[in-house]
Amino acid sequence: MRSVSRLVSMLLLLAVLLSLAPGATSTASAATCYWAQFIADVTIPDGTNFAANTAFKKTWRIKNIGSCTWNSNDVSLIFDSGERMGAPASLALPTNVGPGQTVDITVDMTSPATAGHYFGYWKFKSNSGGVFGIGSTANKSFWVEIYVSSSSGVAYDFTTNAGSAAWSSGAGSLSFPGTDGSANGFGLKLDTPKLESGVTSAKAGLLFAPNNVTNGYIRASYPAFRVQTGDRFQATIGCEYGATTCYTAYSLNYQIGDGPGQDLLGPSAKSTRAGRTTSTSTSTPSPVRTSSSSSSSPPTAHRQATARCGSTRSSRALAQAPRPPPRRP
User: pLDDT tens-digit profile of 170-213?
Assistant: First the structure.
C-alpha cells in the first residue's frame, strides 16, 4: 500500500505541474505582446539644465518590439515615479503603432521651482494588456532627467565663440569656419546638426573633421574665461548621421594660468560608427564666466576642446554642448 500511495502522489504532482504549464506560457506571451524599446531622446537629452519654472517639451522616440499593435484608444503613456514636472498622469498615444514601428511621444513639462537634480520615470499601459515598458523583461521605465539651476542663462557658449578660438590640426593652423572636405581638417558651425541617432538638434553645434590621415586630430583652443563654483560643462558627442568607419575620441582640456593642461573629462569620450564623425558644441547651459585681465582677478581657466579620429578617412564628428550624462543601460 505504501508504494501505491507514493505512486499516486507522484502522479498527482505531475498532474499539477502539467496544469501550471499553460499559465506560464500565457505570461510569457503577454510580455512578448506588449514590449517597448527606447530609441532616442529627440529633445531634452539627459542632464539638460533649466532655470526654475521653465516650460519645455520632452520627446522620446520609442519602438514597438512586441507582437501586438498599440492602438491609440487602448495604449497610453503613464507617469510611473519620480518627479512629474507638471505633466499629466497619463497621455494617449498620438497614433497606432504596429510591431516594428517607432513613435515620437511628446509631453509638456515644467521644471520644478527648487534647484536640484530631477528624474521622471514613465511606462505604458494597455487596457487589455496591463502596464509594460522597456528592458529584457518589458517592465522597466524610461525617463526624463534635468537639472534645475539656482541661476539661469548660458555663461559661455562654445559654438557662438568658436570664431575666437585658435583652430589647428595635425596639418597645422586652420581658419574658422573651414572648407568642407579639406584634407587638412576643418571645423564648421551647423545650425541644425543631425546626430548619429537620427535626431536633428534644434540647437546649433560644431562639426569637427580632423586632418585626413591615421590618428589625425583637430583642436579648438579658446581664450581664457573664469569658471564659477557650481558651473558645469554639458555636451552631446557622437558621429555625424550616416557616418561610416567612424571612430572618435573627444577630450576637454583646461589650463589655469601658466600651469599644465589637464583633462576635465578623464578618459576621452569615444564614439564608433561605420564615415564621418561629428562634434557639435551647442549653446552650453553650463555657466562659465569670461575672466578679467586684471592682475587681482582669481585664476582663470583656459579651455581646449579636442576631437580626434582614428584610422578612418573622411571622418567627421559631432559634439554638442558640455555635460556629464548617465547612460541608459
Answer: 899 999 999 998 999 898 998 888 877 777 777 788 888 888 88
Contacts of 81 (CB under 8 A, 6+ apart): 121, 141
In degrees, to the nearest 5, what angle opens at C-alpha 11 toward C-alphas 10 and 17?
A: 90
Q: Which residues pair with 159 in a beta bridge?
A: none
Q: Report the percent of the chain where pLDDT is more than 70.
A: 69
Q: What is the DSSP letter of 289?
A: B
Number of H helices, E strands in the chain: 1, 21
Asked if 318 and 193 count as a contact pair (C-beta separation under 8 A), the reply is: yes
CA distances from 179 to 209, 220, 240, 323, 324 (A): 10, 16, 17, 28, 31
Helix (H, G, I), strand (E, B) or coil at 60: strand
Give this prediction's pTM. 0.54
Place of cell 551647423: 190
d(CA 211, CA 149): 39
| Residue among 31, 63, 58, 62 at smallest CA distance from 45 | 58
- Dihedral angle of Cα 218, 242, 104, 269, to the nearest 10 degrees: -30
Q: How many CA atoms lie within 13 A of 275 on its CB side?
A: 8
Question: Do 321 and 236 meet the contact criterion of CB atoms below 8 Å apart?
Answer: yes
